[in-house]
Every structure is written in structure tokens, then in C-alpha cells.
Write a structure and sequence with these properties.
The chain is α/β, with parallel strands linked by helices. Helices cover 50% and strands 13% of the residues. The protein has 2 domains: 45 residues; 150 residues, Rossmann fold, CATH 3.40.50.
Length: 225
Amino acid sequence: MSHWIDNCFKEAARDYYSLLNRHYPEKPTIKLVGDRYGLSKTQRMALYRGIAAGDLAGQRREKIVHHLSKEFLYIDGYNVFFSIMNYLLGKPVFIANDGFLRDCGEAYGRIPNYKIFQRAMGLTADFLETCRLQGGEIYLDSTNAGILDHLKEWQEAVGGNDIHVKISKVKLADTILISLDNGILATSDSEIIDKSARPLYDLAAAVLNFSFSTTIFCLQEILAK
């Protein structure tokens, strides 16, 4: 278990979850609970990104599909690549109580190690090659300064593989993904998850499991005790 998941964090997680279920606002509650238990910045972020009220978390879990076969997959590119990158960088990652992989990388669109980012793209391409998708499309926000390089890197990562997943530069990936009325979405972005009626697939978690057979700690285990 990661060193930041200590007894103080576990107690704080249960208190935070209880308060959310009583409709306390998220950010003030993070401060209240975080200050009470003396939580670090990483621990506070894990609470904020990893725990939702029970009814909301349940609604999100109901949208998750666990297998892909002959489906069309729409991918929130930077959301997926950055999650994998942060794992490779040794940043804290976990499964939130809504069932989606999240991290405490705080990248905010920045790439601290471009080779690691390239590797994240390559691992994603390797996994998608095994999925036998009908097709797919990766959306990358055009606001990212390195997007032209990223488009090229994906083509190189795919190489001659028969993946049928193209990559596109768009103004706002979130807006497009929310508006889709077909296919499966790959993202862990809470706003997209809540606003879309489409089934969802946790691509980042699947890539990590495929590449490393890793066991990622699930915050629900804390709340269930």
C-alpha cells in the first residue's frame, strides 16, 4: 500500500465521505477534514479526486463497461495519456470510489518528461492492438502547446499495426465527448462521465493492468470498513 494511505488518511476519507453524503460542499469540506487530520497536499487531492458521494459514485459505476469487442471507442486523449504518464513517473494513482482510475500528478497540461509521455502513448497503442475494435478516435485539445508533436508521435506509435484508431486535434475534447450519441467513451473526467449518457471504459487502468499486471489500490476498500 502506498505510504500516503496511512491511518489518518483512512479516517479522513471516511469522515469526508460521510459529509459528502450529507450534501456538504466538496472544497470547504476538503479543507475542514484535511486540517483536522493534518493531511498533506497529495492526500487532500486524493480525497477530492477519489471520493464522491455514494449516490453519485454509484451512478458513475453503472456506466462502466469492462470489456471491448468490435466497439467504436472515443478516447479523451490527454486524460488517458497523462494518467498513464503519471503512473510511470511514480505519482500516486488509485481507483476512486466511482470505479475510475485517478492520479495526483498535477500535470495540468504540462509534460515534465517527454520520453515518459511517449512511452504512455506507446503502451496505449500496444493495448489497443489487442482489443479488436471496430474503430476509434482520440481527441486532443488544440490548446496544448505540443499537440503537433503528439499527433506525430501517435502515428509512430501505431506504426503499421492494424488498430484503426485515428487521432484528431479539436478545440475542446470535453464538449465533443459529451455530445456523442454512439460508441463507448474512454475517460476518467468527472464532468464528462456525469454529463454523457454513453457507456464508459477506463482505458488508462486497462493499459496499466495489461502492461504491468499491477494492482492499484481502490479507495472503496477504506470506505467499506
